[in-house]
């Protein structure tokens, strides 16, 4: 039999455990919060009609835009992608950190060989420490024009939003539509060496809206109740256009950018680059107005090339309780004003207002010390075409784009496999320049020689090194904003400015307290941004302009982050179904 003291001790331990479960109820279900969610993506052709023209497009499960992925922070996602089309395909889960799961990141020939016709691949990853709006898209050639969709990461159960709980949540995906086959568009541009044809329309959730030809029926209609708060999950899935977004006579409150909570701020107009996501709160009016309101978006463009300068609109309608007012057909449609298409001042002011929430629960973990510093120029140039090509640029040249004057050449096998199995010879080199090979007045008069070099070059980082990277636009061919996306990491935008970066004066003004934390950031036209990140994720990570035309021209590079010493700091071996080249 147990002695009385031992029984008292046992009861005391049980009492402490019961108290802990009442005081910390999350302990009772912490193990059950992590759910494995399965999705199946069948890549298939689907006839779709827009602008009174029907064409066959590449889709996921026949849907355009594609299906929404919904998960909670901490969930595991298992997504089987089966390719039924003639094109090679990969899917990138844009903004997902992919902690130690780089094999699932998705960019073709960077982390995997593409999924060929009749083959499949299972993307298996866990959402670690992220909540908010991200998105998925094809990451090969221009297929993401129609292969894209939203990723909604809800907070853990019982974790509230750090803002007013919305009455309803609505995804808003901004896109572009071509009447032609987008693969043919970029193929023709590659052949001539010139800029590709621009899109025929912009879209909201795949719909061109009433301002486009033959599209009155293809219009987003958002019906709202008065006096409610709606969370709009904005995604810019356009191939080549940064976009302004606004709703007539309504104010929007920005509360999140790239799945990171921000300090709330109000604005009439949101600027969002390709690749970025922004969550905004829409507070509807208390009394239903006798009007309809345009949900509108139009391009922000700073470069020398032509662009699709059209406005796309949806319609915001109030639900009236009075039957006589419930018919909105005769109500006037109010439209919002927009800045000029090249309003760089607005862009700078808007981007400067985006700040991390930096609360106790959601701190901004900005690296305060820097181990490695890099200075990268990003911009355009030209390169010589071969004798077998008939390029239409001067003296048989083509337009190119480069980082530190290196126009990236895609390899024939995946960089991550070459790195992991120590077979880099002939695939890539580790001599990517940490500074521009030639210094010049980057935003002033261009140098006489604007030829770019080519190569498959990478930068190697040690695990846990802190990095500061200055990205400087150049005026070669023309100054232009470049939305740069870094795979595998979020970075902090500690500084941004116009003209040439001053290494002595500008760092003194860096914000290391609450800078914006993003995965995609616009390098200002004729200006620079400085970002910091911690290289805490082993693997090979792509960095590229999210204007697809610039990526096609070579404005891209890759970082290799070496394994750390501990087991949980190393990249595991690839899955058995990893596609072969």
Taking the sheet with the most strands, its summary is:
6 strands, mixed
What would you report as the Rg, rounded to the nearest angstrom? Answer: 25 Å
Q: Which regions contain 5 or more consecutive residues with pLDDT less than 50?
A: 4-8, 15-32
Helix content: 10-25%
Distance between the termini: 70 Å
Mean pLDDT: 94
* Number of extended strands: 33
Keywords: Apoplast, Copper, Glycoprotein, Lignin degradation, Metal-binding, Oxidoreductase, Repeat, Secreted, Signal
GO molecular function, one term: hydroquinone:oxygen oxidoreductase activity
Cofactor: Cu cation
Function: Lignin degradation and detoxification of lignin-derived products.
Describe the structure.
Residues 1-30 form the signal peptide. InterPro entries: Cu-oxidase-like_N (IPR011707), Cu-oxidase_2nd (IPR001117), Cu-oxidase_C (IPR011706), Cu-oxidase_fam (IPR045087), Cu_oxidase_CS (IPR033138), Cu_oxidase_Cu_BS (IPR002355), Cupredoxin (IPR008972), CuRO_1_LCC (IPR034288). Pfam families: Cu-oxidase (PF00394), Cu-oxidase_2 (PF07731), Cu-oxidase_3 (PF07732). The structure is a single chain. The chain has helices at 4-23, 26-33, 182-192, 344-353, 415-420, 548-553, and strands at residues 36-50, 53-60, 69-72, 76-83, 91-94, 120-126, 132-138, 148-154, 168-177, 201-204, 221-224, 229-236, 242-247, 252-257, 260-267, 269-272, 277-283, 292-300, 312-318, 333-334, 372-384, 397-403, 406-408, 453-455, 458-461, 466-473, 482-486, 491-498, 516-518, 520-523, 527-534, 539-545, 556-561. The protein is mainly beta and 581 residues long. The strands form 7 sheets. Strands 10-9-12-17-14-15 form a 6-stranded mixed β-sheet, with no helix packed on it. Strands 11, 13, 16, 18, 19 and 20 form a 6-stranded mixed β-sheet that branches. It has a 6-stranded mixed β-sheet with strand order 22-21-26-31-28-29. A hairpin with a 2-residue loop joins strand 1 (36-50) and strand 2 (53-60). The chain is globular.
């Amino acid at each position: 039999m147990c002695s009385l003291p031992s029984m008292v001790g046992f009861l005391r331990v049980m009492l402490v455990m019961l108290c802990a479960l009442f005081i910390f109820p999350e302990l009772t279900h912490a193990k059950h919060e992590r759910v494995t969610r399965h999705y199946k993506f069948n890549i298939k052709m689907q006839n779709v009609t827009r602008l009174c023209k029907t064409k066959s497009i590449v889709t996921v499960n026949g849907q355009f835009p594609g299906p929404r992925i919904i998960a909670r922070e901490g969930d595991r996602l298992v997504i089987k992608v089966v390719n039924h089309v003639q094109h090679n395909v990969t899917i990138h889960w844009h903004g997902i950190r992919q902690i130690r799961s780089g094999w699932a990141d998705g960019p073709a020939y960077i982390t995997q060989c593409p999924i060929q016709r009749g083959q499949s691949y299972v993307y298996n990853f866990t959402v670690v420490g992220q909540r908010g709006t991200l998105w998925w898209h094809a990451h090969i050639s221009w297929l993401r024009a129609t292969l894209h969709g939203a990723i909604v990461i809800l907070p853990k159960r019982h974790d509230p939003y750090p803002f007013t709980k919305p009455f309803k949540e609505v995804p808003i995906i901004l896109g572009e539509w071509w009447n032609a086959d987008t693969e043919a568009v970029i193929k023709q541009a590659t052949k001539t060496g010139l800029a590709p044809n621009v899109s025929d329309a912009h879209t909201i959730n795949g719909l061109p809206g009433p301002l486009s030809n033959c599209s009155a029926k293809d219009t987003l209609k958002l019906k709202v109740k008065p006096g409610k708060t709606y969370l709009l999950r904005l995604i810019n899935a356009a191939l080549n256009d940064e976009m302004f977004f606004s709703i007539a006579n309504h104010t929007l409150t920005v509360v999140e950018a790239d799945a990171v909570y921000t300090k709330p701020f109000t604005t009439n107009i949101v600027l969002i680059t390709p690749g970025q996501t922004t969550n905004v709160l829409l507070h509807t009016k208390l009394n239903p107005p006798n009007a309809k309101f345009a949900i509108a978006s139009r391009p922000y463009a700073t470069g020398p090339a032509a662009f699709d300068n059209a406005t796309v609109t949806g319609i915001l309608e109030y639900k009236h309780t009075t039957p006589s007012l419930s018919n909105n057909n005769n109500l006037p449609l109010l439209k919002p004003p927009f800045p000029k298409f090249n309003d760089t001042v607005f862009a700078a002011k808007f981007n400067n207002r985006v700040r991390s929430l930096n609360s106790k629960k959601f701190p901004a973990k900005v690296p305060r010390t820097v181990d490695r510093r890099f200075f990268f120029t990003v911009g355009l140039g030209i390169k010589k075409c071969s004798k077998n090509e008939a390029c239409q640029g001067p003296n048989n040249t083509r337009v190119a784009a480069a980082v530190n004057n290196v126009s990236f050449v895609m390899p024939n096998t995946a960089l991550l496999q070459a790195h992991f199995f120590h077979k880099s010879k002939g695939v890539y080199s580790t001599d990517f320049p940490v500074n521009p090979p030639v210094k010049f007045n980057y935003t002033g008069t261009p140098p006489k020689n604007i030829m770019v070099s080519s190569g498959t070059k990478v930068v190697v980082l040690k695990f846990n090194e802190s990095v500061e990277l200055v990205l400087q636009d150049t005026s070669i061919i023309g100054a232009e904003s470049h939305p740069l996306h870094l795979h595998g990491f979020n970075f902090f935008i500690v500084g941004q400015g116009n003209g040439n970066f001053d290494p002595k004066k500008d760092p003194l003004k860096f914000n290391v307290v609450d800078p914006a934390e993003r995965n995609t950031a616009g390098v200002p036209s004729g200006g620079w941004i400085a970002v910091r990140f911690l290289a805490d994720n082993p693997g090979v990570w792509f960095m590229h302009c999210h204007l697809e035309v610039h990526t096609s021209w070579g404005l891209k590079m890759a970082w290799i982050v070496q394994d750390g010493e501990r087991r949980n700091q190393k990249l595991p071996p690839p899955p058995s179904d990893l596609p072969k080249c």
